[in-house]
């Protein structure tokens, strides 16, 4: 089993985890706001035997360096594509995105449909205006910075409880990891920038949502949309919008699950995603392009707490 590595992509530090046979279909895994690639740890165990899995900490999230420009969906999507180029993954990838990661996945598809084989949208942003209050409060001048400036173990635990239905999943290791992320120098600013680019105190902005959904719907990419029926961050009622926006998509509502089914019900999630990916045609695209030279280091456990 591989550990996360640090890549240098256009002079910027990017933390990634790559596992699985290079000749197998590539699957890109994208996490949510303020989180990290560890959200996919359970899926690496279950899916890396069948696919080449690529997960990364988005710019300014986890332990990846932020970008110089303000964070937005187009900026994040471009950075993800640069990382795929850097690891010589030039095939169209199956993109699996949770929460903010789902919106980034759709933005990648809209900008570069040739780089996307299918979409798996997991409790994804982009399908409704409703979003949990703490994320809306981040959009307020002054208050957003105060909410994220001084993270504590208690605040880290609260954030985990917002996303996970089962209290037993909120372990000391998970809280320690969340606190380590919150204490990174870029995390607070990037979370606030992201929230303000996508939402107001009233909720998620309609303009970018409608434009993005229309652009992605026109592509008719193979799409799977899944949701937890107990989602406290983005309510499961958004699944109705997803059905309308993507009538060709497969949909699945998981009972008694909150915002991150890939963690809460890892076996069921992996089974559903595998079934979907196995049914997507033309997913085995030959690798093209010569591998690029990368600066890679392997950080130790103490540097980056893992779950």
TrEMBL record:
Residues 25-264 form the AB hydrolase-1 domain. Gene3D superfamilies: alpha/beta hydrolase. InterPro entries: AB_hydrolase_1 (IPR000073), AB_hydrolase_fold (IPR029058). Keywords: Hydrolase. Pfam families: Abhydrolase_1 (PF00561). GO terms for molecular function: hydrolase activity. It comes from the Bacteria. This is Alpha/beta hydrolase. It comes from Nocardia rhizosphaerihabitans.
């Amino acid at each position: 089993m591989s550990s996360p590595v640090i890549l240098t992509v256009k002079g910027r530090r990017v933390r990634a985890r790559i596992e699985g046979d290079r000749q197998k279909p590539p699957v890109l895994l994208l996490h949510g706001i303020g989180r990290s690639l560890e959200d996919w740890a359970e899926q690496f165990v279950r899916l890396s035997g069948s696919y080449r899995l690529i997960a990364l900490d988005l710019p300014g999230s986890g332990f990846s360096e932020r970008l110089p420009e303000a964070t937005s969906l187009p900026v994040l999507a471009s950075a993800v594509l640069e990382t795929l180029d850097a690891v010589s993954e030039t095939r169209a990838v199956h993109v699996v995105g949770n929460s903010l990661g789902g919106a980034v996945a759709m933005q990648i598809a809209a900008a570069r449909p040739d780089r996307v084989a299918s979409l798996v949208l997991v409790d994804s942003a982009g399908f409704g205006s409703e979003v949990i209050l703490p994320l809306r409060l981040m959009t307020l001048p002054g208050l957003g910075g105060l909410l994220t400036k001084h993270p504590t173990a208690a605040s880290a635990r609260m954030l985990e409880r917002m996303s996970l239905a089962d209290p037993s999943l909120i372990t000391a290791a998970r809280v320690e990891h969340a606190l380590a992320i919150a204490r990174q120098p870029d995390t607070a600013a990037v979370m606030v920038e992201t929230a303000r680019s996508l939402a107001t105190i009233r909720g998620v902005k309609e303009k970018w949502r409608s434009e993005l959904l229309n652009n992605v719907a026109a592509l008719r990419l193979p799409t799977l949309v899944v949701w937890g029926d107990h989602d406290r961050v983005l309510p499961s009622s958004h699944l109705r919008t997803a059905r309308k926006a993507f009538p060709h998509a497969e949909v699945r509502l998981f009972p008694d699950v909150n915002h991150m089914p890939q963690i809460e019900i890892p076996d069921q999630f992996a089974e559903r995603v595998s079934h979907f990916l196995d049914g997507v045609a033309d997913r085995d695209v030959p690798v093209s392009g010569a591998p690029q030279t990368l600066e890679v280091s392997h950080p130790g456990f103490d540097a980056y707490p893992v779950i």
